UniProtKB/TrEMBL annotation, chains A, B:
Gene3D superfamilies: 2-keto-3-deoxy-galactonokinase, C-terminal domain, 2-keto-3-deoxy-galactonokinase, substrate binding domain. Keywords: Kinase, Transferase. GO terms for biological process: D-galactonate catabolic process. It is an enzyme of class 2 (transferase). This is 2-dehydro-3-deoxygalactonokinase.
Length: 316, 316
């Protein structure tokens, strides 16, 4: 896959920093480190410091962390994806354009000599007409092998800003972004609805509240039905846990409106934990189970590493 | 209208407190006081104090403020509407039921002797199947005389939690609530979109951005299009002021979805300032101007007083 039997994976997000030493052939992780030193904090420190060299400021931290990583050798190339290529990151790179396939040729990257004999491959994100992403494109690349090369469908990556990637014959051709997770976080914790919802277990009752709301959100959108959650709580003492799932269902249903019409096309779902449960249930409700493929948890866990490995092979 | 030539209007909201001495026949305001001592702060003080008598705690503050009010006489009845009748207020009253007409008989009220010879009329809110309100019902009552008694239509009260009151032959029969204002506040100030929007002037360009978004929001809902505002800003450097109106248009368009189909029925708009401009433009775009009635600013300003005056006549 790449000339390098090992590489160092750096996933540098807005709030988190994660390093892993990876065996390329197996994607086994030999060692790892994670810190809360995300791009945002790094940027604040840079802006309050001497501001002379952005790359140097970020590279110094990366070097310090790489040196603390067991199993890392000074010849292993480092692949950095996520927000490190944003304007508040290590070095700004323009967004790449779709389509991207297995070789990821359209991805924009910058290769630098990190230390003598050690390369650093900084990966940019991609954009569509209405969306931008930095990080998810690398994860999506790592899932490409799991998608039927003859098919046309949509890969779903739920999260704070959910992404729906349109796939056709081995390539991602377009995508949409949704603020579902961020809206849910705001509505459950800081809005007028906060007192009417409470996180709780997924059971037949909460599932029923969820699925009914998924239908409503998909058919009529979410915003017109939000306040009814509070009214139900105040007037009829509806259970806050049911309301939590009702709210989730409204937002997820609205997000899935566009894919709900594509019942004849495969939908690949890449999510873990509770998001996996919710999105699977919602997609089965809206589209049936026939064309839904829920990707394996271990595949999803390794998707970023696999994507970085492919980027290293093409761009390294 | 009422036996009392004068009354004291108390508008006690979550965050604000307002007193006015009103001449009943003309609704002229002879004197007024306003403070930031809303229900929420009053409640916190009550909970951290001796907690023995909720009514007494609120009444003490009201008495102090009434005594500071010029022109107030100890015989003028006091009408209190807004959040004072909520569970965190002066005394909890159950929500009244629709329909409500000019006499407001279905409104729930509590009359107490505030001081010897001085009555206090505490007014509760009303509920529908999916909405609750405390305060707007009094304002809506005060606008009833402006609505064609033979007509069937909708009275729109835009705001943090917009209300759409269904009207038929002199009575409000149902209503819906929308979180439009609260969502807009969150999205413009604390979400991922905050850096992509900026408040600015209403002109032909921002109006065009707004109206186009109104159409999209009404047709397809708001949530699927929110992230595109950020993408447009990052990728095409769209103007943050245009984006501000775009975001506003999406949310208002989604709110107006249900009334947009009622093009043959009158729609009465009660809004001031920038909300008046935006909702009028959106309603004209979606429904045409033929059935839209934009209520006079002075009427809206006096609506609460007129409503309280009517409540005093029936309940006092």
């Amino acid at each position: 896959m790449t000339d390098h039997p090992y590489f160092i994976s750096c996933d540098w997000g807005t709030s988190n920093f994660r390093l892993r030493v990876v065996e390329a052939a197996t994607l086994d992780v030999l060692a790892q480190r994670a810190t809360g030193q995300g791009i945002q904090r790094m940027n604040e420190q840079f802006l309050s410091g001497d501001r002379s060299d952005r790359y140097r400021h970020f590279a110094a931290y990366l070097r310090e962390q790489v040196d603390l990583l067991p199993e890392a050798r000074p010849t292993f190339p480092i692949v950095v994806s996520g927000m490190a290529s944003a304007n508040i990151g290590m070095q700004e790179l323009p967004y790449g354009k779709l389509p991207i396939g297995r070789q990821a040729r359209n991805l924009v990257s910058e290769v630098r000599e990190f230390r003598s004999g050690q390369a650093l491959v900084l990966v940019s994100g991609v954009h569509s007409e209405t969306g931008i992403m930095r990080g998810e494109e690398t994860q999506a690349l790592g899932l490409l092998d799991e998608l039927d090369p003859q098919a046309e469908g949509v890969l779903l990556l739920p999260g704070t800003h959910s992404k729906h990637l349109r796939y056709r014959q081995g390539r991602f051709t377009d995508f949409q972004s949704y603020m579902t997770g961020e809206l849910f976080e705001f509505l459950t914790s800081r809005s007028i609805l906060a007192n009417s919802v409470r996180d709780g277990v997924w059971n037949t009752r909460t599932q029923s509240a969820f699925l009914s709301a998924v239908q409503t959100g998909c058919r009529e959108g979410a915003t017109a039905h939000l306040f009814a959650i509070r009214a139900g709580h105040v007037l009829r003492d509806t259970d806050p846990v049911d309301n939590y799932y009702r709210l989730s269902g409204l937002l997820i249903g609205a997000e899935l409106h566009d894919v709900a019409v594509e019942v004849e096309q495969p939908l690949w779902l890449a999510a873990s934990g509770s998001l996996r449960i919710l999105y699977r249930a919602a997609l089965q409700e809206l589209c049936g189970a026939d064309h839904l493929v829920v990707l394996d948890d271990q595949l999803i866990e390794r998707a970023l590493l696999r994507g970085q490995c492919q980027i290293l092979a093409t761009h390294g």
